[in-house]
Amino acid sequence: MNDPTQEALRTQAINSAIAVLDDPLFKALQETSRVAVLRQLMLLGRADVGQIAEKLPQERSVISRHLQLLLEAGIVRMERAGRHRIYEVDGPAIMHKFEVILREVGRLAPYCCPANGARNK
């Protein structure tokens, strides 16, 4: 690939894909117990830490930390109801994150994984 324009596009696609792969979403979903918290929240719909803790073996404090990380990753949202924090899965935000991931990986694919082993020239 000697064309400077193509090389610049390739570099930009790689950098964009790397940035997407550094999204907190991936860190949030890499731990089994955190995924179990997310799964339970999906089943319950809207719930506070106590309701989630009733269904899981972890302590409430551990579940709270998992929920905080999921919140920071944009996977769940939280609203206060008096002294309670009510969590729910943020479906539109998750969909948006995956759309961005697909778009950026789609931009990268011709440069790193071309069809039939042919390199983009």
TrEMBL record:
It comes from the Bacteria. It holds the Pfam family HTH_5. This is Helix-turn-helix transcriptional regulator. Keywords: DNA-binding, Transcription, Transcription regulation. The keyword DNA-binding applies. Residues 14-109 form the HTH arsR-type domain. The lineage of its organism: Bacteria, Pseudomonadati, Pseudomonadota, Betaproteobacteria, Rhodocyclales. SUPFAM superfamilies: Winged helix' DNA-binding domain. GO terms for molecular function: DNA binding; DNA-binding transcription factor activity.
